[in-house]
């Protein structure tokens, strides 16, 4: 009997390894096909399944470089920063520093003064699920002013004026993607912890996970990828000043996978916080949101995901807690259709 148990255990181990190997081969094949169709787009993909990591990459750091992109190459994760900000908010809730349904009034910096009819109306959860009703910055105008660094024209005064001059929450309770909402969340975190957002990222993410390629304000390193617009024009990494909590972070496939492993681990600090962010805070028609994460339900699958696009790069992160997998797709071109298409192909043919 003992020999039989050993045989079955060995067979199970071999079978599990074979399945994992098959998954990684199929992902690699999908990436190769997409790179052949888009040879000017550098790609780096990280995948974790049952705590085992897999990476694949295509292309060079930039058009002039012969250095190949790998799992440690640095990309902009742009708005994927928002799910990290919401994770910090959830950590603050678990530390009993705030409640997720607290009104924002008492947590805002002193330069903000909500008009009387808006007081005690907006909750922290409203900001994190994009349903606060507050006006947002006009990215189209900002891009026209400075295509390389559009956010450079946004100041603390700009944001305060937007909030203080808001007389009505015209679409409160309705989804409207909001950069200002996540900027305010970051400022709430700064007040709660009495630290800069940059310090919070380092202390709550970079240090505990021992990340080596995750950068905030200073990103002058040799392994950064050059960004490019859809028409092939070179794009600088964005500098995020006061709006940092909405898009600041630069990272690599290896580091994001380390973050995903922490998210999928229910016993880790990040994992416990992620469970709170995965609760539904907005559900209308086919759109369902947690705190910073989109929730996709299909048959018995529940996938949490968030995309990010800077002026010259695109990425998307997704994970399935029940099936214990997570993936990050990083592109050095602003190409939302391509990053979504790659995820769809991998999900439909491999992960579903």
What does this structure look like?
The protein is α+β, with helices and mostly antiparallel strands and 352 residues long. The chain has a single domain (30-351), classed as 3-Layer(aba) Sandwich (Beta-lactamase), CATH 3.40.710.10. The protein contains ten helices and twelve strands. The chain has helices at 2-37, 81-94, 124-128, 139-145, 156-164, 179-193, 197-209, 253-264, 269-277, 336-351, and strands at 43-49, 52-58, 75-76, 227-228, 234-235, 250-251, 282-284, 287-289, 294-298, 301-309, 314-320, 325-331. The protein has a six-stranded antiparallel beta sheet, with helices on both faces. Strands 3-6 form a two-stranded antiparallel ribbon. Helix 8 packs across helix 9.
Short description:
The chain is an alpha+beta fold. It has helices at 2-37, 81-94, 124-128, 139-145, 156-164, 179-193, 197-209, 253-264, 269-277, 336-351, and strands at residues 43-49, 52-58, 75-76, 227-228, 234-235, 250-251, 282-284, 287-289, 294-298, 301-309, 314-320, 325-331.
Low-confidence stretches: 11-17
> Mind telling me the C-alpha Rg?
21 Å
The percent of residues in helical segments reads 25-40%
Relevant CATH superfamily: DD-peptidase/beta-lactamase superfamily
Structural class by secondary-structure content: alpha+beta
**Morphology call:** globular
User: How many separate structural domains?
Assistant: 1
Question: What does the main sheet amount to?
Answer: 6 strands, antiparallel
So, CATH architecture? Answer: 3-Layer(aba) Sandwich
User: Going across the major beta sheet, what is the strand order?
Assistant: 2-1-12-11-10-9
What is the chain-wise order of helices and strands?
HEEEHHHHHHEEEHHEEEEEEH
Q: Give the helix tally.
A: 10
């Amino acid at each position: 009997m003992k020999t039989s148990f050993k045989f079955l255990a060995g067979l199970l181990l071999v079978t599990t390894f074979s399945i994992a190997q098959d998954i990684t081969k199929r992902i690699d094949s999908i990436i190769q096909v997409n790179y052949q169709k888009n040879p000017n787009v550098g790609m780096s993909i990280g995948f974790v399944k049952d705590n085992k990591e897999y990476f694949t990459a295509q292309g060079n750091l930039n058009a002039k470089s012969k250095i190949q992109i790998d799992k440690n190459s640095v990309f902009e994760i742009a708005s994927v920063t928002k799910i990290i900000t919401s994770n910090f908010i959830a950590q603050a809730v678990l530390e009993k520093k705030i409640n997720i349904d607290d009104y924002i009034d008492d947590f805002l910096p002193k330069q903000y003064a909500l008009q009387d009819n808006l007081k005690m109306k907006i909750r922290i959860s409203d900001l994190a699920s994009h349903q606060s009703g507050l006006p947002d910055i006009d990215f189209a105008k900002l891009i026209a002013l400075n295509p390389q660094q559009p956010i450079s024209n946004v100041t603390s005064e700009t944001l305060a004026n937007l909030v203080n001059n808001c007389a009505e929450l015209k679409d409160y309770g309705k989804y409207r993607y909001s950069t200002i909402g996540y900027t305010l969340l970051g400022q709430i975190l700064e007040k709660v912890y009495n630290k800069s957002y940059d310090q919070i990222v380092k202390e709550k993410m970079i240090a505990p996970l021992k990340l080596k390629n995750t950068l905030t304000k200073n990103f002058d390193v040799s392994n950064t990828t050059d960004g490019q617009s859809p028409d092939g024009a070179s794009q600088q990494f964005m500098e995020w000043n006061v709006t940092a909590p909405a898009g600041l972070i630069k990272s690599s496939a290896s580091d994001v996978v380390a973050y995903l492993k922490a998210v999928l681990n229910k016993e880790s600090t990040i994992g416990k916080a992620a469970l709170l962010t995965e609760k539904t805070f907005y559900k209308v028609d086919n759109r369902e949101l947690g705190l910073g994460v989109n929730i996709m339900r299909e048959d018995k699958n529940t996938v949490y995901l968030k995309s990010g696009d800077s002026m010259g790069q695109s990425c998307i992160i997704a994970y399935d807690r029940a099936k214990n997998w997570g993936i990050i797709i990083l592109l050095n071109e602003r190409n939302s259709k391509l990053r979504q298409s790659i995820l769809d192909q991998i999900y439909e043919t491999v992960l579903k």
